[in-house]
Amino acid sequence: MKDKFGRPVKSIRVSVTERCNLNCFYCHREGEWHRHHSEMTPDEIERILKIARELDIRKVKFTGGEPLCRNDIVEIVLKSAPLMDRDVSLTTNGTLLSKYAYELKEVGLDRVNVSLDTLDPEKYRRITRKDMLNDAIDGIYAAVDAGLNPVKLNMVLLRGINEDEIEDMIRFAADTGAILQIIELEAPVEKEQTGFFKKYHVNPKFIEEHLEKIAEQVKYNELHRRRRFVFNFEGKKAEVEIVRPMHNSEFCMYCTRIRLTSDGKLKPCLLRDDNLVDILTPLRSGATEKELKDLFIEAIMRREPYWK
Ligand SMILES: Nc1nc2c(ncn2[C@@H]2O[C@H](COP(=O)(O)OP(=O)(O)OP(=O)(O)O)[C@@H](O)[C@H]2O)c(=O)[nH]1
Ligand code: SF4
Ligand code: SF4
User: Quick one: which residues bind GTP (predicted)?
Assistant: First the structure.
């Protein structure tokens, strides 16, 4: 199904919890700024995903907070995977992944993105306020070993903190067989002028320009219209994607995602909080499938590109 701007909706990002065992200073919490404690059950998630599937949404990504903080995450994936035949993935900070990677693979998880901004324990502590770098690294190795493929590493570029680690991160990703995603710090327009954003934001365009020169192959990520640069790094194959969401009208033009917040609201855009559609409350009060599907369609119709 397409929205008013002709953009098809192909994937859903389901936040299963807003809890997290880390506390990164820049966290955008998948755009969930309202604090709440209610979470959807695996059966409720399954019911909502069935409706998504009827609307031809066939890819799901589980997010949080930290999705592995849910001790029923395996059940959630087990129930959801058969509905989404194309791509079942999860974005995690990796610290609990060595415990779950094999089981998640078994119940239908295809791939995983792991947040890793630095390989320096001191900087990791500064960013996440926790001393868990080794747990995250163990989680990455477990994910590769379990056959989750691809494993992507998400590195948010932070001025004055990890700009000097790009080579080390490329080396680590190439050594582990992971794809490195270098991500621009992002914020909605009203937060763009804050001291915080100005202090840490770096435009990663210069990295893209450099990779354009050295790449042996440029693959095209059809899902996001992002380019993936493949090159030889110290004798190993390295793959790097640059995620540049800020003021990127192309990124929004080809946005095919809708979100479901952990308290059951359909969220048409990461950067907006004023157009949510509550689907969980009607579901809990006995709404029919038709009524729930209409709510889903309403949320799709509220989608609009953020950067135009
Ligand atoms: N503006 C915007 N940024 C997004 C959106 N989805 C993801 N991002 C950015 O991309 C970063 C990485 O997100 P991931 O959850 O790893 O997913 P992804 O890389 O977009 O997706 P895949 O490559 O399919 O795994 C996030 O931290 C955001 O900065 C979105 O819908 N809108
Ligand atoms: S690990 Fe992710 S969800 Fe948790 S605090 Fe850091 S950025 Fe936020
Ligand atoms: S419209 Fe743009 S900002 Fe909003 S979710 Fe899609 S890509 Fe992100």
Answer: 13, 61, 91, 152, 257-259
Q: Whose CA is nearest to atom 2 of ligand 3?
A: 252
Contact yes or no for 6/255 (Cβ under 8 A): no
Between CA 257 and CA 91 the distance in angstroms is: 15
**Every domain of the chain and the residues it spans:** 12-301
Ligand 3 binding pocket (C-beta < 6 A) is 251-252, 255, 257, 269-271, 305-306
CB atoms within 10 A of CB 22: 19
Q: How far is the CA of 115 from the centre of ligand 2 (A)?
A: 8
Residue 129, token pair as written in the block: 């306020």
For the packed helices 133-146 and 121-128, what is the interaxial angle rounded to 10 degrees?
100
Three-state DSSP state, 11 = strand
ipTM of the complex: 0.97
Site residues for ligand 2, CB cut-off 6 Å? 20, 22-24, 27, 64-66, 93, 115, 128
Q: What does the alpha-carbon distance between residue 193 and residue 197 come to, in Å, rounded to a whole number?
A: 7
Which of 56, 107, 106 shows the shortest CA–CA distance to 86?
Answer: 56
Show pLDDT as tens, one digit a residue, over the chain (308 residues). Answer: 999 999 999 999 999 999 999 999 999 766 565 566 789 999 999 999 999 999 999 999 999 999 999 999 999 999 999 999 779 999 999 999 999 999 999 999 999 999 999 999 999 999 999 999 999 999 999 999 999 999 999 999 999 999 999 999 999 999 999 999 999 999 999 999 999 999 999 999 999 999 999 999 999 876 667 889 999 999 999 999 999 999 999 999 999 999 999 999 999 999 999 999 999 999 999 999 999 999 999 999 999 999 99
Q: Domain 12-301 belongs to what topology?
A: TIM Barrel (3.20.20)
Cβ burial 260-299 (10 Å sphere, 16+ → b, else e)? bbbbbbbbbbbbeeeebbebbebbeeeeeeeebbebbeeb
